[in-house]
Amino acid sequence: MGYKPQRPTYVIEFEDAPGLELRCTSTSLGKLQSTQQLSADPTKQFEAFKVFVDNVVSWNIEHPDMENELDEYCTVCGSPAGAPLDISLTGLQCLDLGFITKLFMGWVQGMTQVSIPKELNSSLGESAQKELIQMLGQLQNPTTLPKLS
Fold this sequence. Notes:
It is a single chain. It contains six helices and three strands, in the order E-E-H-H-E-H-H-H-H. It is mainly α. A three-stranded antiparallel β-sheet has the order 1-2-3. A hairpin with a 7-residue loop joins strand 1 and strand 2. The radius of gyration is 18 Å and the shape is globular.
């Protein structure tokens, strides 16, 4: 019987957004590559966001203020400002594109973090561990992975 890897859940915190917390599950390399391909096609970019939002377990994001100050409720989702934002494509539509990109990139970075096997952890010095993690992280960067045909 072989080893069946579990889908991990990542808690992603952002240094430049204290208090923001994003909990996401991982996805397969194939799904991630299809997301990158979808992102390149303007007619299918929404599908790429769906892959992301389908992997969000939870977030603590509140609905932003309305663009039109006269609106009491969002014209996209119907929620008032400050209400918990629904984890859905509709919820994403209420957010600034730069903020969505931050969430998406945080998810990708969370999935590509490397943990060192226990055997190496005790035999390497701290600086060697950091160097190894950095090298492995570069190898796991989804933008440097070979494209499969």
